[in-house]
Predict the 3D structure of the following.
Amino acid sequence: MSVVLRVEGLSKRFGGFTALQSVDLQVSARERLGLIGPNGSGKTTLINCISGALYNDTGRIVFEGHEITRLPPYKRARLGIARSFQIPKPFRSMTVLENLRIPLEYAAWSRAEHRRITDEAMHVLETIGLEDLANKNSGDLTQVDMRKLELARALAAKPKVLVSDEAMAGLSGAEVDEIIDILLALNKTGVAVIMIEHIMRAVMKFSERVAVLDAGQKIADGDPQSVIADPEVQRAYLGE
Amino acid sequence: MRNLVSPFWVSAVVVLAAGLAFTELAANEYYFTAAYLILQALIMAVAWNILGGFTGYVNFGSAGFFAAGAYTSIALDKALGLPLPLLIVAGALVSGLIGLGVGYLTLRLRGVYFAIATLALAIVLETFVSNWTYVGGARGAFILTPENHLWFSSYVHMLFMLMLILAVASVAISRKLNFSRLGRGLAAIRDDEIAAECAGVPTLRLKLVSTTIMGAMMGVAGAPYPFFVTYVEPISAFNLFVAVNAIAMPMIGGTAHWLGPVVGALLVGSLQEIIKVNISSEINILLVGIMLVLFISLAPQGIVGLVQKHLRKRSA
Amino acid sequence: MVSVDLLANAIVAGLLLGGFYAAVALGLAIVFGQLDIVNIAHPALIIAGAYTAYILNSRFGLDPVLVGVLAAPVFFLVGAGLYRVYYAAFERTGQESLSGLAFFFGIMFIIEVALILVYGVDYRLVQTGYLGETLNLGFVGLPYRMLVPFAVAVTLTVAVYVYLARTFTGRAIQAVAQDRLALQLMGVDPIRIKQWAFGLGIATAAVAGALLIMIGPVEPSVGRQYIGRAFAIVVLGGMGSISGMFVAALILGVIESVVATFYGPSWAPAVAFGVLLLTLALRPAGLFGR
C-alpha cells in the first residue's frame, strides 16, 4: 500500500524539555493506526506537529510526496490532513450544520461542489449519525454529540488522513463503541485514521497497527498483539 | 437569484428616496446636522463591527482611523484641490492601509496586543498630526466649503445625502459579508481560531482583510468631516467619543448580526441628539459610557440578539 | 553638535521619569502580566488617584505621597470589587476577549467623563514646600518634583517585588496564571487570589496618581497618554516580571526624555507606541524573554 504520510526524524523541544526525539512514523493510505503512550509521552505534541499547530525543530513531514514541514495548519487541512480536538472546540455561534460548512467551504473548497454545500454537510451528518441535530445550536450539545461533531467537522474537510485525538475520553462503554463504529465507517470511505487513545479496548479493536511513544521516543511499532506483548512496552506503558 | 428584488434593497431605495425628499422639504438646518452626525456614527459602528462583531477583535482606536480619513481630506484638498468623491477614496485607502499595517504587526501575536496597539495608534497619529503644520498642527485648519452643491439648496443638504448613500453602502457591504463564505470564515475565527485554522480557514489573511475593510470604512466616514465642520483641530478629530460610540453602538445593538450596529447607532445616536439639545452634552457622553458597561455586563448579545432569542423561543 | 550637558541632563531626567513610569506600570504588570486581565482602565484609575491627591491636598494641605498611601486601601477595595464584576460577567463565561475588554474601556471612559463633569478640563496641581526646589550635583540638576516621585516609585516597586517573591500569597499570585490546578490542590481558591492581586494592582494606582500630580499638572484626559506607555513597559519587560518591568520603565523614560530634549516635548507621547510596536514586531516575549 502507498504511504500517504511520512514523519522523519521529528524532534521538538520546549525550553529544556524534550517532547519528541527523532520520531519516525509512516501511515499508509486507508490504514488504521493506533498511537498510544503514557501521559506526557509526546502523543499530543506529535499530532500538533503533524497538523501544523506546532512547528518541529528538526526532521521533516512528507504528505503524499510533498514536504509540508513548514506549511501553516490551514494549508495542511486543504491538502487533506484533518484532526479532531480532545477538548471539543465547536463554533459555538453556529448550528451543527453550519459548523460543517466551514471545512467544506475552506479545507475542501477545491474538492467540494460549491452549489451543494448544505447537501454535502447533511451527508456527512448522516454518516456520523447527527442528522437529527443538524439545526441545533452546537454549544448546547451533550459531550458525546460534541465528540461526534468534532469527527463530523474533520470528515467534512474531506481528508486523506484523519487524526482523532482522544475522541472517547470520559465516555461510557456504549458511547465508546459508538465512536469506534463511526471511525470504522470513516475508514471504509477511504480515509486513513490515526487514533490517539488511552482506552486499550478501543485501540485493540480498531487498529491494524499500533505505535507506542514513551518519553518522546517511539519504542514500538507493529501489529497490535505483538506490540502489546513487547516487554519494553509493558514496562513503559502498562507499568511493571 | 431566488428573489429578484430582496426586501433589503427595496428598503435601501426607500431610505434613499426619503432622504432625497427630506432635503427638498425640511427647512431647519439643525435636522441635517443631527442626521449627518448620526449617519457618521452609523458608518463607524458598522465598520467597527466587521472586525469586532464578525471577527472578534477589539479596535479601541476608531478615532484614529476616522481622523486619518479626515486629515487625508484636508491634506489632499490643500495640495491638489481634489473633488470630494476622490478624497473619500483617498481616505479609504489611507485608513485601510493603516488597518492592514497595524494588523500585520500585531495580529500574528495575541489578540489583546492588537487592541492595545489600536489604542496607542490613536495617540501616535494625534501626536503626528499635532506636529504637522501643513494641516494646521495643534492649532487646527479651516476648510473652505466648495461653491458647488449640485441641485441641493445648501452644502449641508448635499453632505447629508452623500452620507446617507455612504451609510447605505456600508450597511450593504456588512450585510453581504455577514452571509458570505468570507463572513462565515470570520465567524469561525471569532468562535475558535485554532479550530478555524484546522478547518482550512486562512486565519491571518482573513483577519487582515477584516481590519483593512474596517479601516477603510472608517476612513470613508472621516473624509467628508472637514467639509461638514469647516474647522478641524486634532482634539476634536481624535475625540475619544468617536471611539466609544463605535464600540458602544454595536455592543448595544448586538454584534453577531449585521443589523445590530444599525439598530444601535440609530437608537443611541438619536438619543444622544435629544439629550444634547435638552440636557447637556457632558451628561450625554457619560450616559453612553454607562450604557456600554451595563449592556456588556448584563445583555452581551445586544438588542438584536435579545429579539432573536425571543423569536426563537416563541417559534420553538 | 550634541551638548554633553544637555544629554547628561536628559538622561538623568529620563531615569527619574522612568522610575516614576515603573509606578505607573506596576499595577498593570500584576494585573495584565500575571493575571492576564487587560485592564485598560488602569491609567484612568491613576488619574483618579491624582485627583484624590489634589482634593485632599487643596482642602487639608496633606502631602500627596501621604494621600497616595492613605488612598491605597480604598483603591484596593475598589479593585477587588471591580474584579468581582469582571469575573462574574466575563471571565466565568469565557467572554473576556471582547466584552471584557470593552468593559474596561467603558470604565475608563466613565472615570474620565465623570472627572470632567465635576472638575472640568482645567489642569490641577498640588502645593507642597519642597516641590519647587532642585538638588544640584555639578552640571546635573535634580528637581525634587521628579526626585521624590522617583524615590517613592522605586520603594513601591521593591516592596511589591519582595511581596511577590517572599510571601505565600505573593507566590500564589505568580502561580495563578500558570497553574490553577496546583493552587486548587494546595487548597487555595484561585478566584480569591486573583481578586486580591487585582486589588493590589489597583492600590498601586493610588500611589502612582499622587506621584503623577507631583510631577506636573493633571487634567482628566492625561490618562490616555499613559495607556501606550504602561502597556509598552509591561510587554517590553516580559509581561509578569517586576524586575524586567522596572528596567523597561527606565529605558522608556530615558528614550522619551532624550526625544523630548532634542526633538521637542510634543513628540514624546509617540515614543511609547514606537517602542511597543517594535517590541511586538521583534521581541514579543520582551527584552529578557527567550
